[in-house]
Amino acid sequence: MFSLISGKRVRRPGSRALIAQVLEEFARGEIGVGRTPPTAEEEEALAGGIHAALFGVGRLQPLLDDPDVENIDINGCDRVFVSYADGQELMREPVADSDEELIELIQVLAAYSGLSSRPFDTANPQLDLRLPDGSRLSAVMDVTVRPAVSIRRSRLGKVFLSDLVGNGTVTPEIGRFLSAAVAARKNIMISGSTNAGKTTLLRALANEIPPHERLITVERALELGLDQFAELHPNVVAFEQRLPNSEGQGEISMAELVRRSLRMNPSRVIVGEVLGDEIVTMLNAMTQGNDGSLSTIHANSSMEVFNRIATYALQAAERLPIEATHMLIAGAIDFVVFIEKRNDYAKGGRLRRFVSSVREVAGVDGRVLSSEVFALAPDGRVLPNAPLSCMEELAHHGYDPGGWA
């Protein structure tokens, strides 16, 4: 790890000892001129602050170090709202002395996060990036009265389906089904609302992929981090969208990266999040022999995914009509998984995330035909709801359908 100090990169290992040495010399100097040196507690706080400023994200670092923090919303330097895993939402201390200092902090992060420097200024007032700990940062300026920042924590880096079964996100049967679906190279689209846990579920599914496969990931801002775990995925290429420079040149879009990924000998292509015209390229990729692809999309239900895809396709350069898009969906996507979040008032309002629907794409007849193979029952349980058309294939990959005896 490195940090930028006076225009130079400085190695992180041993930095704590160096900071302690500097503070010790400062204390001696204070004693030498007859002033009281910092106490042990003050010195520890100073050391932590200096380390965070040099190698972390300044006064944001304590919040990012707190394992109970889920989201951080900043509406100006002194309006900091923090959401915790237990459902609490509290206002916390300022993260900068001024809005200008907050903007400078974000600019430094933008310069050294991701694969290329990302501008954040009046000409480029929007920013999305991944922080060193895996958290997702989104920032805007000039289109709001004060700079605004939202940080969504990524508390589960190396996550497996067994972890999600253990915390109740996925039922044991859906966990077995998803594991078999990945092994059978089914194309899976994960859907849900903002902050529902789509990316975490995507990581868990990706970790079901055998290590000998070559993975290509395509993202707007690096977030999945599959290349960080070589023991799980030794052969990964991570693509990140490149924004245009101040002259409007040099942009490389998500759609272009998806097309490029097909020339890189992928076993599977994983698109971190579909938000626009890349959907047509991605669906075409899924129908060209790249089975086992994974992606996420925003939607309010598993059924709504098809309309959302059709809307994106209408906005793409190809201007696909709805009928053509539905044919493309039917040939490309095998399963849609819907993950939702709810406040569990039986447990004190704690936020609950869980897979509530799995829909199998069955074909097309003017519209996409599908059946909800797992659905939310009136009693709150997620149960098998319809037989799978590919049951024999999934059984070959270890799926034992306990719900359909």
From TrEMBL:
Gene3D superfamilies: 3.30.450.380, P-loop containing nucleotide triphosphate hydrolases. Pfam families: T2SSE. InterPro entries: P-loop_NTPase (IPR027417), T2SS/T4SS_dom (IPR001482), T4SS_GSP_E_ATPase (IPR050921). Signal peptide: none annotated. Residues 62-321 form the Bacterial type II secretion system protein E domain. Transmembrane segments: none annotated. It comes from the Bacteria. Belongs to the GSP E family. This is CpaF family protein. The lineage of its organism: Bacteria, Bacillati, Actinomycetota, Actinomycetes, Streptosporangiales.
